[in-house]
Amino acid sequence: MYVSWRFAIDLTIVVEELNIRGLARSRLAKSILDAAWSRFLDILSYKAASAGGQVVRINPRYTTQKCFKCGELVQKSLSVRTHICPWCGYVADRDVNAAKNILKAGAQPSGTLADGLADEPRSRRL
Q1: Which secondary-structure segment (H or E) carries 29?
Q2: For residue 6, what pLDDT band results from cuts at 50, 70 and 90?
């Protein structure tokens, strides 16, 4: 007897929509081209699709400047590696703050408790 199980997994990978050609004209051109970012994203998209998922690309504008907790813009130079929000007091590594903003921008509202409590419950039990 053979039993086959298939699990449905909602696989969504969220990345920044980078202007790789523009970045390749910067002083980091060699590093960017050596890393083959464009090819990596193509392979990632293919693999996600073959697993039933998707890669969502979002606008990178302000992902490092915007506070993940309160949404205020906190201007900082690239040399500043820690995000410190003067409005809400949130402190995180700059890259962690940006990653959370990227994930939040690409997330689809699902109404689950992981997204926070809904304004109205979906069903009422008496």
Answers
A1: helix 29-35
A2: low
Tokens of 71: 């949404």
Task: Count helices and strands (H / E) in the chain.
Answer: 4, 4
DSSP conformational letter for 71: -
Angstrom distance (rounded) from CA 61 to CA 86:
20
Please state the rounded mean pLDDT for residues 84-97: 97
Assess contact for 32 and 23: CB atoms under 8 A: yes
Tokens, residue 99 = 């990653």
**pLDDT at position 23, please?**
77
Contacts of 83 (CB under 8 A, 6+ apart): 64, 67, 68, 74, 76, 90, 91, 92, 93, 94, 96, 97
Q: Tell me the domain boundaries of the chain.
A: 9-60, 61-95
Closest to 83 measured CA to CA, from 43, 75, 34: 75
pTM above 0.90, yes or no: no
